[in-house]
Amino acid sequence: MTPKQFQSQLPGNEARFFFTLFLALLCSFALMFHGSAEAAEKKTSQTSAGKKSTSTKKTVNSSGSKSKKTANRSSKKTKKSAARINKERVALINLDNHWETTRELALQSSSALVISQEVANIGKSEGISASNEILFEKNSNTPQPIASITKLMTAMVVLDSIPDLKELITISEEDFDTLRGSHSRLAPGTQITREDALLLALMSSENRAAHALARYHPGGVPAFVGAMNRKAEALGMKNTRFADPTGLSGDNTATARDLARMVDAAYRYPLIREFTTMTEGKLVFENQREIDFRNTNPLVKSESWEIGLSKTGFIQEAGRCLVMQAYIAGKPVIIVLLDAVGKLSRIGDANRIKRWMETTTRTGIARTSDT
Q1: pLDDT of 148-166, one tens digit each?
Q2: Which residues are part of the catalytic machinery?
Q3: Which end of the chain has less Cβ packing within 10 Å, N or C?
């Protein structure tokens, strides 16, 4: 029943009274409904805003927590690296202090050998023999992983096959390091001469270049590795085994004494002497792209060293390794350093050997921790 219909049923003043009362009640009800709706809407808005704020706060906290965790990890990594470097420096300082106090040679490498190189034997089949004076040795008969020192044998086997050094070889995905994921700037499809591949393998320890050289050998990599082991046997390296041509395999092992034989044999190859002692080189491609490569042994740039052959190596199992032929105090020597801990250790050990030879008079054999 509408108000008009209701009004039409009421007589005179009474009808107007009830009509006015009805309108007042209707207005009050409308105001109450509007107020409740507004309050509900405000409450909903506040709740939603509160949720949004809470969500935003959580996001901020989450982001802040993530940044904090990243910062903490970075800080821990920095602290760990700093602690390692400090520990290494302390060890080197202790070795130097030992030298100052005792004038005895102490090295951080776990296996080492310093042996005179008989110049008269260079170029002859006998190479290292009993006539070579051992100046210092430490665990020299213990087989150790040798990492990229391997590439000296790789180079000898390549050159023994008398290949066309100007022939182009192509880097392929077969040459990728799937064992350790080591970096290389030689992309698949890169074409370089066999000579340039040999240079990069020896000077910069380029793994893809070394593997490509073996892959292009007649019979491929398996035949090449077989030739490496036969060459080692022919050189009298009785405690040496090769499993790959790059040194990435921890199964490539040898003793320091065996490696002295290998260094002496490699020294007879003029190209190996030249490539292992070059300080840097630039590879220029047909599209004019250039890549700079540097020697992995910083000592070849030192004016205080006269180095005739050099090769470094590193994988986790082998530690830091270094072999060299050098003239020290006017005497040709072969230096073998294996399993040095820390980036500075093998270079520090080499410098300690040089200082020891230049400032002391040696009598007999100096053995340390030999097994």
Answers
A1: 999 999 999 999 999 999 9
A2: 148, 151, 205
A3: N
